[in-house]
Structures are given as C-alpha cells and as structure tokens.
Amino acid sequence: MPASALDDIDLRLLRVVAADGRATLARLAAESGLSVSAVQARIKRLEARGAITGYRAVVDPDVVGVPLSAFIEITPLDPAQPDNAPELLEHLPQIEACHSIAGQAAYMLFVRVASPRDLEALIRDIRQAAAVNTRTTVVLQTFFENRAAVPR
Amino acid sequence: MPASALDDIDLRLLRVVAADGRATLARLAAESGLSVSAVQARIKRLEARGAITGYRAVVDPDVVGVPLSAFIEITPLDPAQPDNAPELLEHLPQIEACHSIAGQAAYMLFVRVASPRDLEALIRDIRQAAAVNTRTTVVLQTFFENRAAVPR
DNA sequence: GTTGAAACCGTACGGGC
DNA sequence: GCCCGTACGGTTTCAAC
Fold first, then answer.
1. How far apart are CA A54 and CA B59, in angstroms?
2. Could you read off the pLDDT of B91-141 as tens digits, one per residue?
3. Given CB atoms, is A143 within the 8 Å cutoff of chain B?
4. Does the pTM of the predicted model rise above 0.70?
5. Domains of chain A
C-alpha cells in the first residue's frame, strides 16, 4: 500500500472530523478553503488509506451502566507457553483495550464494568481464559479521556 | 436533571451509533423497528441527557505521526500540597487520558508521541508542570482499543 | 480541483394513538 | 406521554469538465 504523505489540509480535516465526527462537508470545506467535492474526495481518500478507521458516538459510561473502570496488567503463568492472550480475551466485551507493554507485565487491559462484583467476576474470567496472573488498578475518577490525538 | 432510565430501544440505538457514528436515522429506524421521526426524537433525548456526549472520527495514530504510546503513573512530590495535577496537565495535548487511581500512584495518564525523544521531553514537561514523580510503561503493540462500551 | 444536478438525509410540523 | 407521516431545506453523491 502506498503512502503519499498527508498534507496540511488533510491534517486539518482530520483534526476537525476527529473532534466532530458529524461535521458536514460544507463545514469542512469552509474550514479548509476547498470546495465541497474536493473535501469529499479527500475524506474518502483518508478513509481508504486507513487514516480514518471509523466513526463513533461517544457514550457516557455512567449512563449506560458501566461506571467502574480499571486497568488490569496481566502476566502469563507459564512463560514457556505460546502467548496469545489478546485472542483469548477478545471475546470479553468488558475489555475496551488491550496493549502489550514493556515492563514487568506482558499486557495492559482497560476494562469497564457495572460494579465491584462484576470486576471480580471479570478478573476471574480473564485469569481462566488466558492462564495469567493479574494486577488490577481501579480508576477512582476520570478527568478526561478520548482527547483527539491529531498533532498540530 | 431527570433520569428516566434507558429502555431496550435506547440501548440498541446507542450500540449502533457507538459502532457507527454516522449511521443514518433511516438505518437506525430499520434496526429498531421505529419510524425515522421516533428515532430522531430518541437520539436527541440521548444527546440532551448526556448519554451521547459527542461524535468523533477514529484516526489511526500511526498515520498521523504519533506511533508511540505509553502509560504514565504520576505521584505528587509533596503529598501535603493541594493536588490539582489534572488541571496542570490539561494543556499538554499529548495526554489523551487522565484518571485518578487507587494504588501507589495518584494518577494514570495515557499519552501519544512521535518518538522516544518526544516521550522523554513530555515526561520532563509533566514532572515540571505538576511537581510529580513519574513511572512510565511503554506500549509495544496495541491489539485493540476504542471498543464500544455499551453492554448488552 | 471545480461545477452542477439529482438523490438522499435531517429537521420541523401536523396529527393520531 | 410516545409515535407516525409529510414537506422543506441542507447534504451527499457522482457525473462531466
């Protein structure tokens, strides 16, 4: 796949659409100085190239019943075994993110659950599904998250 | 602020729109069995109630030049001082999320930067801005993230 | 990239349950 | 209260340039 670099207008469009996924082509055109059609062609290119991987509504976790979140670091019980923890854990919808990390643990998960009781059950499920030890850090308060990551 | 609970249709709409922030009212109507007007009224209610806090395009960090991410735990140097680290750090755009946490550290940050060099500079900025110690865990690979968090 | 025209969509309003 | 149908203006789409 080719990789003609993003120019300033692309970055500008990405910044706007990252902040407002429903921005109209007309607004994007106004903010970039291009015509509506030119903007549309660029957006389609950005989607095709994988620069834009999707669009989502941001949902308040509290309102939909998952007010408790936590970081869970996991480490395989047997380092000799093949390690495919991400695949083994993918089916658990409470796991919002899964990163492999440098440091003592092998992976860092970010999870959302309804209650401490559900967190306990989830940790049990994770340990069992992936044969890992866990180290859980409960989130007390979230000051901000989901901030758009398109550098100026 | 009232809080009439979300019914099954609301949750269904949230699930669809969380996965596809550009889903049309027509599609939401088809998937929920309601008319376009009814769906529109519900979406507006969900936005007004704060169940939907916004819409965004998901941008590939690699493509926009921030391929390196990390978790940074921070702890105030002087526990006696008033602790307003989140406000002191808000101006740093590389910080994508800031949570206060239970455990040894006070806050967990998630950051994105272009290079190890930039990570070093960011850590220095954080220490200086908020008068904190830091403990950084570099992300080696992200298997998944941004998974929609609307429970079934 | 641009223009323009047609199809589609979001919105407001009227009405019925 | 919640829902449906319709009409209008804005938006997306795609051809031709």
1. 8
2. 999 999 999 999 999 999 999 999 999 999 999 999 999 999 999 999 999
3. yes
4. yes
5. 3-48 (1.10.10.10), 68-138 (3.30.70.920)
